[in-house]
Amino acid sequence: MPMWLFVIIAALLLIMILEIARLMPLLLRELKLQSDFVLPSETSAGQITNRLSIIIPAKDEETSIIASVESILASSYKNLEIILIDDRSQDGTWELMERLRRKDGRVRTVKIDTLPAGWTGKTHAMFVGAGLASGDILLFTDADVFFSSDLVARSMSYFVSNHLDMLSLIPGFKHWGFLEKSIYPHLALGISFFCPIGQVNNPGAEAAVSSGCFIMMSEKAYKKVGTWGSLRDQLTEDIAMSRAVKTLGMKLHVGRSDLVKTKPFDNVSELIRFWTRTFYGGLENRTVKIIRLWLNYSPLLIPFLLLIYFAAKLAANVDISTPESILLFMSIMAILVIEIPFGIFLKHYHGSWSYTLLSPLGIFAGSWIATRVFFTKTLDKGIEWRGSIYK
To answer: Which residues, other chains included, contact 375 with Cβ-Cβ below 8 Å and sequence gap of 6+?
Structure first.
């Protein structure tokens, strides 16, 4: 190996080891902040009587909408209405919505046939639904999200007692499959690097993020930001709403809760599309942030590739030079400083650290998505989402 190449690779590995070591305390602090977030008990919600309007947009959700809505109807909190908006579905979603309406008087249905120019489908559907709401508190969620029976009561108690303007809960999964355990956590870490929960919940910090699976807002706050109409062209409307709330100095809180769950990904392609959209919008389409995202992932592949390279040489009985031995040692050290904190994160995230061994898959996925986002931005191609192109 040429000495100049040895020096470059060694320098990269050293920088990587030092940077990850620097970030480890920040990761552990973020995990503690997430662990400290607990919704109040259901009994403490007994004094809350606010009217809650739950708005659910749906496009081609016939496979999940019945179970999703029925999980909300089973809530212990009763002073609520559910407004279902069929956003140009081509399947049986509308018929299922009507079945739910006939079954329970708390359900209302709206059908949208055309999308006005300048709107994304979901923001328009939520705008229409919110315009029909009778509650002083609004809850926006999705048709593939499932609530525990005590979620609404406990979140309402937390929302009202803490005088929040917006509460967003990051969901778990209804079923934790291979993709959710091996690849998804790496990408969740990717967005949290730019928007740490501690900073998101700090009124003095710019960081803002939220999950469209659960956005609870007071009617007053919703109108103050200009409704979804002010965010009509936003691809990641949930993150845009959190930014708007913080920009206006209102009180936002984001936490992670397994009391709300979403369906797992059907395949790798769906997961990649979801995170491409999330990073594209979540990083505000800024080239500097997109490049930083790529740099957060791609260099992490180097020690794994080096380990494979040296393992192949040893398997072929090829001698390893002294500089290469140093690189092998540094590669192992780099892998350890990557794997150990990530194992701690996985244990906290879904209870199984063993998927740490598959971290190269998550790192590669993050690098691939960052590359896609970069070229999408550079070539001004826009993002395809649910049949439409957004720029």
So the answer is: 381
